[in-house]
Amino acid sequence: MSSDPKEPNNSGLENNFEDFLEHSLSGYISTNPRGEIIRINSKLLEWLGYNKEDLIGKRMTGLLAMGSRIFYETHLSPLLKLHGSFEEVAAELLLKDGSKLHILLNGYIRNDENNKPLFIRLNVYKATERKVYEENLRHAVIDAEKTLLKEREMATLREQFIAVLGHDLRNPLGAIKSGASLLTRSASSDRDKSIVGMIKKSSLRMEELIANVMDFARVRLGGGLSLDLKDVFIEPIILHVIEELRITFPERIVTVDFEVKKTINCDADRISQLLSNLVANALTHGSPNEPVKVIARIALNYFELIVSNGGKPIPEDALETLFEPFTREASSPSQQGLGLGLYIAAQIANAHGGNLAVTSNTTGTSFIFRMPVYIID
Amino acid sequence: MDVISRNNVVIKGSGTSPMMFAHGFGCDQNMWRFITPAFEDSYQIILFDHVGAGKSDLKAYHPAKYKDLDGYTQDIIEIAEKLNLEDIIFIGHSVSAMMGILSAEKAPHLFKTLILVSPSASYINDGDYTGGFSKSEIDELLESLNTNHMGWSMTMAPLIMANPGRSELGEELTDSFCRTDPAIAQQFARVTFLTDSRSVLSTCTIPALILQCSDDIIAPIEVGEYIHEKMDQSKLVILEATGHCPHLSAPEETISAIKAYL
To answer: B94, B96, B103, B122: which one is catalytic?
Structure first.
């Protein structure tokens, strides 16, 4: 470049390493193996607020704030001795005016051919902005963790409460049921019989609700639904469920269309519970003037259980959350139940490797449970 | 959990008399690698990492167990018992020097000699006692560890890189040396720098050598003198070495001081 007469002749300064180090934007220090400062550049002196003469011969660690100083002695100094270098360590400088400056520190030790240490060099980078950013991140993480922890505690508490409540409700309900059964025999008047019938019907409904609540808690508390899988003939199981519901809802018609000849590997009690939830749901929400239809069949390699009812279709937005817990028709708050029935039914379907779907339009509403079956001829 | 793998116990040397090395805060058993070769011919060398440091089993770190020095002391005794050690020469650096004294207090039958390298009975100044630090300075350290996720976790990155010029340290060193989980480092720092072990010094019945560096900001000379005064059967040697780790900065001087005492 010096051949070009228009370029100012600055090659002397440009190639001057002394100048490069002195006026660099980062700090440089060299110390002897004992850690006493041999050289220090102007940038670092400017940050510290000292003159060069103040620091030559002093211990380098004296420039660090106390926390960093201890960290240096216990961790970085051994690293230098054993590994030869360290990089990107966050530390704090102690400035002459008593304030502190966040820095990043790189360091290495240079040895002679006999592996005797000659000197230590340290590079110092200002990290004030970075530190603020890191602090903000750190606080955000701490806040998020706290919130999460609180939410988890609340959720666990809530679910434990539900489990205990469900359990404790069972005993008194058992007493009511057996009391009602005893009264059935002695009830003579039609009025008495009707009252006892109502007690039994309500007890049954309540028993279902409690079972659902406890299953919900079981699923949510992490245990999940456990299945007792056996090869069973499904027909008597389904008929038994329908029969019970017919007694409870004597004024309603429930039809059954049954086309399953083989055994199915499933948990019979859980399938009963699923069907009972679906049929009870259809009886409660469907049009009272139309029958509830139950179809059980094998289609391809699937066992299907379909429960249909007439009446108004389920609104589109409600369909989306239908299988979520605690969702019920907002339009008819008087309807009994916690909105767990369909949730539990879906959980049972999932546990069997199947699923539960719904279609709803002006001609009616159908819930379809499908699970894969392996037919062995 | 097996004690040996929990504490990454390493046994070497061709002698029978056991010499157990315990590293201090901030590092692991690699700290001793300039010292142990000098004793391998005549002693059985037992090295280990405190739980939470080096290649120890981090799953074994339970904050409740390691909330004070007792948890670490228990580990030292378990290692000694597991290996059926007797008449142990225990060499502990910094906070581990105090663990040695506490172990000897609990199980004196196991120990023959304690060698205390840069020990401190308590780091915080208290009336006439000079610990070297004010409470607020220690708080500042703990706070800086609290916020310095860089210092511990990030020093790991360059360690994985090649280590030209120091090949004698071996490969295994590069990926494990001074590896410390930041959360564990924080609690270990708390235990190290906030424990006051002054009361156990005078009851120690095992002979002890105190190796005190001449310019150590972590354990100043007053601390070495204090420990010497309180421990009846102790000998104090002031090393020319400076800093807190004479076994790293002046291994020859450290070795000859230990040999002269033994």
So the answer is: B94
